[in-house]
Amino acid sequence: MTEGNFVDYVKLYVSSGNGGKGSAHLHREKYIEKGGPDGGDGGRGGHVIIRGNQNLWTLYIYKFKRHFKAEHGLHGSKSRSTGADGTDVYMDVPLGTVVRDKETNDILFEITDHGEERIIAKGGMGGRGNWHFKTSTNQTPRYAQPGIPGEEIEIVLELKVLADVGLVGFPNAGKSTLLSVVTAAKPKIADYEFTTLKPNLGIVEHRDHQSFVIADIPGIIEGAAEGRGLGHYFLRHIERNSVLLFLIPADAVDIRKQYDILLDELRRYNPEILDKERIVAISKSDMLDDELKAELKEILDGELPVDYLFISSVAQQGLQELKDKLWKTLND
């Protein structure tokens, strides 16, 4: 999937159909001069329904079409004939899509299961025909109910990436390089910050034909929780991951300080994120000789409160050990 095709935030206008009018028809037939009321009911207006689809990974299908309208119900007619219901409109979305009211920003619901259906705009009920209003004192009512208008609402679809492992790190820490090596994904890679502007997903093949999904998400900077840099754009995707893999380059001035900054940004955005399992990978470790690696290991053993390991995506070092560690953590 190219970066331009990954769409995870769209604003849409949806409206359901109006209910059809009930009929005020009076029965007329040869030899029957004064037939009673026989007006049928109006049909229901079409719903707008949001449906989960596990085969979708992006909201790209809504990039160019932003208005969705369901059909109106048809009016009732003679012989108590009910008007046809308006056709429902189905909007398929990837799993992990949050639906918000654009005006209030309130979360209306979230789609997490394949085939899950939620009505976002309910079609108006059809009006009742005049035969419903026949009484002993009014045997030929000449009125019927109008249909109920449909609903209209502006909504926001917001996709939170569903992945087993989320890569957490500063810009240019080597996240995209790692993803390109351990999966078949082809993210954009360059030696400048914020090369990755959209999340990239890749499937890691493990032993015995097992696999798990890893997500390379735009890098954090200090102040991301307040919206600096790509701020909330990044952080909302990390909420869905089971394991957080912190990627810190071996040439960082202070590895523990970088880890603390990353952790603090996650805490300030959503403290619940810190309940997830965490692993630290020291990337670009091919720059270290054995002596430097031993010295750094001695420092980190006393500083880092979580499991860590040394890897190099370019030199293909420590990658199998990393995959084993991630697989074990996911299954524990």
Describe the structure.
This protein is of the alpha/beta class and 332 residues long. It has 2 domains: 161 residues, Spo0b-associated Gtp-binding Protein, Chain: A; 167 residues, Rossmann fold. It contains 5 helices and 14 strands. The strands form 3 sheets. Strands 10-11-9-12-13-14 form a 6-stranded mixed beta sheet, sandwiched between helices. A 5-stranded mixed beta sheet has the order 3-1-8-5-6, with no helix packed on it. A 3-stranded mixed beta sheet has the order 4-2-7, with no helix packed on it. It is rod-shaped. The protein starts with 8 loop residues before the first strand and ends with a helix.
Alpha-beta content class: alpha/beta
Could you give me the name of the CATH homologous superfamily of the largest domain?
Answer: P-loop containing nucleotide triphosphate hydrolases
- pLDDT < 50 runs, ≥5 residues: 187-197, 223-231
The number of strands is 14
| Residue fraction in strands | 15-25%
Summarize the biggest pleated sheet: 6 strands, mixed
Gyration radius, to the nearest Å? Answer: 29 Å
Using the 3D structure, state the CATH architecture of the largest domain.
3-Layer(aba) Sandwich
> SSE order, as H and E?
EEEEEEEEEHEEHEHEHEH
GO molecular function: GTP binding; GTPase activity; magnesium ion binding; ribosome binding
Binding site for GTP: 169-176, 194-198, 216-219, 283-286, 312-314
EC number: 3.6.5.-
Organism: Bizionia algoritergicola
